[in-house]
Amino acid sequence: MKRIETERLILDKWSKKDAKDLFEYARTPNVGPAAGWKPHESVAESKTRIKKLFIPNRTWKITMKGEDKAIGSIGFEPDPRRPEIRAKELGYSLSEDYWGLGIMTEAAREVVRYAFEEEELQVLSIETAPDNKRSLRVIEKLGFKFEGRLRDAYRTFDGKIRDTMVFSITKDDWMDMSK
Fold it and tell me: Please, what are the domains in the chain?
């Protein structure tokens, strides 16, 4: 997985030593539940997330340049609705200490570029809860197009069933926006 730099950020590989940083932001009640996952309860749980989810699915840790602290994650997973084409699903999380600063938009913009230019994907999708306004704003800024709302499509960590909003951007869409 390639290290990526933006104006303010470094996106790099996660390692088990980053578990304390992940736990620091993933334990809060405002980060995970917005995406449907429970707040982390221990550094060991964060280490397991890194080992079993972030590393195998090519998820970058997000750090501010000049700092040595993970403040978020962004990466790809297989797109379950498009198994026959070069497609991935984008996912991300960010410490609430950094909300409202344009950090996720900056990171995601570069990851979208990477997806189309270097991974040669045809389409990139993303899902979010209808009430996750921050994520919806990032999705809008990146130029993803609304595909639809899947009703009762996702069971959250606490057993609730919720709708999910599905968006995508094709390589052609991205190229048109990049001109």
Answer: 4-178 (3.40.630.30)
